[in-house]
What does this fold into?
Amino acid sequence: MADLQALNEAVFKGDQQSCVELTKAAVEEGVAADKILNEGLISAMDRIGEGFSKNEIYIPEMLIAARAMKSAMEILEPELVKAGVEPIGKLIIGTAAGDLHDIGKNLVAMMLKGAGFDVIDLGIDVSAEKFIEQAKSTGAQLIGMSSLLTTTMLSMEETIKALKEAGIHAKVIIGGAPVTQAYADKIGADGYAADAAEAVTVAKGLVA
Ligand code: B12
It folds into this structure.
């Protein structure tokens, strides 16, 4: 019998090996991919997100859980594609031009993936031109931008301006240690989140 509760616990604890084994077992037993995703993986990441918001769980545990989830997702993704499970939204995400920090951005990308978004990660030092080109070619509804430097916060403002000038209607969500809600409002971003758990709530709100 596929044990989705054990899979849920394995994600929560960040036990990557068990995650892979239990996901493989569930797929082989013919458990529906969306059931494995929702009951085994996403609800565990929801628990992680809640714990993080309450300061009961910290970044290292969140990263380890996200990594475990990612390895389970690699097994599950082809099954989800076959089953035609619709993602709840498409998002492109990248670190602002000039910025090479990606730990926080990766965490946000993983959490959004875990929440059911189709996430296209553009990597680090992403120019406005690249955001525009990718927004057009993917038709993403959301664009995520991360900045860890006070200097590259300015690139976010320039990118938002360029996106508007290019007629891109995707909603923009920003974050990173020096970024604040006030800054997001100032540069015309549609959303801001202080951490990866909050990013999920904000992103869900923007596509609702
Ligand atoms: C690790 C690190 C590095 C690593 C990066 C490795 C990597 N692969 O990312 C390395 C060593 C490469 C590095 C380089 C530099 N760094 Co550095 N770095 C850090 C450090 C210590 C930790 C950053 C981090 O990963 N935090 C952990 C993650 C999980 O947190 P986070 O990024 O804030 O992300 C969370 C939220 O912000 C939010 N979030 C993040 N992105 C997004 C995006 C969206 C859409 C949303 C909604 C939310 C969101 O959710 C995340 C998860 O909860 C910080 C210090 C600090 N305390 O922040 C300095 C720091 C950011 N670095 C700094 C500096 C100065 C530099 C360098 C210029 C140093 C140098 N002289 O070369 C270079 C810059 C290179 C460049 N062009 O980018 C300064 C920035 C100062 C400033 N005011 O601008 C800091 C603050 C250190 C300091 N106190 O001086 N750095």
Q: What stands out?
A: The CA atoms of residues 96 and 156 lie 6 Å apart. The first helix runs from residue 4 to 13.
